[in-house]
Specification:
Blueprint: H1 3-19, H2 25-45
Helix pairs in contact: 1-2
Length: 58
Amino acid sequence: SNPMERAVQLELKRRTVKVRVFPGEDALKRLVSAILVEIDEKWASDTKAYIKWECQDA
């Protein structure tokens, strides 16, 4: 797995271990979905130095 995937897995594990017992599968899915949305929003708002947005003429 790649570093990004490992980071997401570690974050999910860190947050779900604290809860320990879920009342049902739907509760687990809601928590994991909320965590993934939060990670996505953080990633989308970060500056990405490796992306060049300027168009260069060939």
